[in-house]
Q: What sequence folds into this?
């Protein structure tokens, strides 16, 4: 069967990665979480004295950018992909609040984006890939056969993030999370390089009131429709 490229973009914490991962598993495609790559660059910056109390030493990061190698490996036990930074598993560390608070400004730096987009395009060369992020349908894979733009209200997204952290046994403050969600939306939509926006040929999905099962089915139906149209 012909393999296609699937781009899933949208706001933070709106369930993009859950639906993207789900679809990839169902149809045997590779799944890449591009946000995890920006998070890994942020963690690297925190651990190497490039970010200090929110201040970024961009010159130093530029010197280090070619030393930052990000890859994904399937965890054999859980069957889920995990993020590796220079061959060290950083999956848990990149999901914490500290990385979340620093990732937006890091992802707004032009040379960071150039480096990550190049790695992402390489990963998608053979098609058969589902990638989620902010600029996948507009910049990384502008020719993707299926593009989805996902959205949900900030309050619903903050509640999902809160539940996720609580389930992991981490401390969480709803108001702080909501503030972080809104700040990230603002930075993501207003940065100069590759701002978050819906591609003209993307399909809009507001999943505020959808269950996981409903959105998974909707996404699979879209995939199926595109595949049938290419026959
Ligand atoms: O999807 P996420 O919350 O894990 O993304 C983390 C940050 O990275 C978020 O602030 C937006 C940014 N990002 C981006 O700029 N471009 C992407 N393709 C993916 C994420």
A:
């Amino acid at each position: 069967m012909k393999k296609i490229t699937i781009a899933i973009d949208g706001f933070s914490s709106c369930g993009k990665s859950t639906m993207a991962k789900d679809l990839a598993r169902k149809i045997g495609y590779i799944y890449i979480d591009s946000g995890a790559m920006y998070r890994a660059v942020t963690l690297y910056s925190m651990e190497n004295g490039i970010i200090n109390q929110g201040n970024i030493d961009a010159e130093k990061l530029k010197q280090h950018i070619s030393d930052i190698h990000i890859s994904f490996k399937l965890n054999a036990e859980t069957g889920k992909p995990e993020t590796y930074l220079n061959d060290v598993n950083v999956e848990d560390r990149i999901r914490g609040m500290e990385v979340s608070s620093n990732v937006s400004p890091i992802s707004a730096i032009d040379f960071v984006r150039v480096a990550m987009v190049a790695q992402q395009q390489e990963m998608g060369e053979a098609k058969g890939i589902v990638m989620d992020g902010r600029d996948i349908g507009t910049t990384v894979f502008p020719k993707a056969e299926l593009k989805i733009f996902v959205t949900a209200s900030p309050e619903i997204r903050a509640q999902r993030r809160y539940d996720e952290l609580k389930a992991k046994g981490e401390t969480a403050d709803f108001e702080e999370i909501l503030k972080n969600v809104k700040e990230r939306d603002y930075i993501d939509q207003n940065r100069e390089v590759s701002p978050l926006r819906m591609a003209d040929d993307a399909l809009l999905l507001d999943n505020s009131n959808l269950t996981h099962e409903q959105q998974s089915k909707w996404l699979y139906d879209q995939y199926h429709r595109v595949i049938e149209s290419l026959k």
Remarks:
- The chain has one domain: 5-229.
- The first helix runs from residue 16 to 27.
- The mean pLDDT is 94.
